[in-house]
Amino acid sequence: MILIVNTTTDRTITENLHAALEQNGFSDAGADAKKEQKNKKGNNVYEIVEAGESRISPCIGCNYCWLKTPGICSIRDDYEEILKKMVHADQLWVISGTALGFMDHKGKNIYDRILPLATMYLHFKGKQMRHYRRYKQKMDFGLIYSGEAEKAYLERWNGRAALNFESRSLGVFSKEEIKEAVTCMH
Amino acid sequence: MHALIINGSPRVKKYSNTDKILEKIISGMKDSGSTGELYEISDRKQWEEIREKFYHFDHILIALPLFVECIPGLLLEFLETLPVPAKDEFAGERKVTEGSETDSAFSKKPVLSFLLQSGFAEGCQLRCGEEYLSILSGKLGCEYGGTLVKGNNFGIRLVEEKDREKMVLPYQRMGQIYGEEGNFFSEECKKFTGPEQFPGWVRVMVGLMFKTFAKKSFDKAAKEWGCTKSLKDRPYET
C-alpha cells in the first residue's frame, strides 16, 4: 500500500497525484471501503490522507512510545490514524511545504512523530547504530515539496531518514515533478 | 561576550538533556568571563521575547537534539516566525551612544552557532543535521559560527545524579572555548565529537552490551515509568 500524506492545504497536488495513479492502474483504498479490506496489503493500492488542516502536534521527545506505552504516542491527536496506516504501508510519501531551505514544520512533524514505529532497543546495522523496527513491515520514503528548498540537501536528508527504518529513499520531487514521482510509486 | 542561548529541545526543561548540557556550557562561558541569556523553545510563552531579542545579539547559540536527521519540528516552527532582516538592514558595526547600544535597525549580522546532540553515539549520525545548520544560519541572515557535534546523550535523563554530572562535565570546557572565541571552529571543538564510526571490534563489544546491560537498563527504566507491556509490543498489528 502506498500511503500519501498531504501536509499542505494545496489539494491540486493530490488531485494531480490521484489522476496519475488511477491512470497507472492503481486503486484508491480510501474511496472504496470494500476494496480497502480486500486489497489492504496489495501493491497497487494507494491512500491519500489530507492532513493540511489536521490537528498534528510536534513530537515533544517524551520517550513514552519507547519506554512507557510501547508503540503508542502520548499525544492523542490526528496523527494516531496515520500511524496505524503506516504499519501496513510499503511506501510513505509526504507532501510538504517548505521553509528556510528545508521542509516546513508541518512536514517535519510527520517524521518526528514516527518514533513509535521503532523500539527502544538498539543494534548495529551496517556500521551504524539503529533502533529495531517495531513491526515487520518495511516502508520506503518519498518526499514531494511545494515551494523553494535546497533540493540536494532534501535528497541527502531523505536518504538518511529512510536508513533509520532500514528502508530506502524513493526520491525527492518538487510538486512540478509529480509524473516523475509517480514512476517511483509501485 | 553576552550571548543569546536557546534550548531548541521540545522536551520540557526539567527532563531536557540539552538543558543539562547547556548548564555546563554556560558555566564554562562564565569561566572565560562571558555570559548567556537562556531561553527554552519548549515554552511557547517565551517565543515572543526570543523573537524580539534575536537580531539584537552579536552571538547566538542554539542547542538542539537531533530529531530524525535534522532539527525538531517545534524548533522549526519557531524559526519560521523569525523576522529575518533584509541584507541591507544590517548597519555594519554596532553603534554605541552614551554607553548604550543604539536601537536603530539591526546591528551587525549575529554569529549563529549550534550545539547538536543526539542519542546515537557516533559522529557520522549527526553530519546530515549539521549540514542543515550551516544552511540554516544563512537563511536566517546570520554568520555561521560552527556546530559542536556530540552523540551518546540519551542516558542523561535516565541516570543517577552523579553519573549525569560525569556525562555533562566535558561540556564545561566547550563552554569556555565558546565564551572565548564566540564560535566552535577550533580543533578542540571538532575533536569533541569523538569517533565518526566505531571500529569493528568496538561494534561487537557495544552490540553485546546492547543485548545485555543496555537492554536491562531500558527495561528497568520502563518499569519505573509504569510500563506494563513488553518494549517490543505491537499495538497496531492486525
Would you give the CATH topology of chain A? Rossmann fold
CATH class of the largest domain in chain B: Alpha Beta
- How many runs of DSSP E, i.e. beta strands of chain A? 9
Number of strands of chain B: 7
**Element pattern of chain B in H and E:** EHEHEHEEEHEHHHH
Tally the structural domains of chain B: 2
Distance separating the two termini of chain A: 9 Å
Radius of gyration of chain A: 16 Å
Number of domains of chain A: 1
Q: What overall form of chain B do the CA principal axes indicate?
A: globular
Quaternary status: heterodimer
How much of the sequence lies in strands of chain B comes to 15-25%
Structure, described:
The complex is a heterodimer of chains A (186) and B (238). Chain A is an alpha/beta fold and 186 residues long. Chain A has a single domain (2-183), classed as Flavodoxin domain (Rossmann fold, 3-Layer(aba) Sandwich), CATH 3.40.50. Chain A has helices at residues 11-23, 33-39, 64-67, 79-86, 105-112, 151-163, 178-183, and strands at 2-6, 27-28, 45-50, 91-99, 102-103, 118-125, 128-133, 140-146, 169-174. In chain A, the strands form 2 sheets. In chain A, strands 1, 2, 3, 4, 5, 8 and 9 form a 7-stranded mixed β-sheet that branches. In chain A, helix 2 (33-39) links the parallel strand 2 (27-28) and strand 3 (45-50). The termini of chain A are close together. In chain B, helix 1 (17-31) links the parallel strand 1 and strand 2 (35-40). Chain B has a 5-stranded parallel β-sheet, with helices on both faces. A two-stranded antiparallel ribbon of chain B has the order 4-5. With 238 residues, chain B is of the alpha/beta class. The N and C termini of chain B lie far apart (58 Å). Helices cover 39% and strands 16% of the residues of chain B. Chain B has 2 domains: 2-197, Rossmann fold; 198-238, no CATH class. The interface between A and B is large, with 48 and 55 residues.
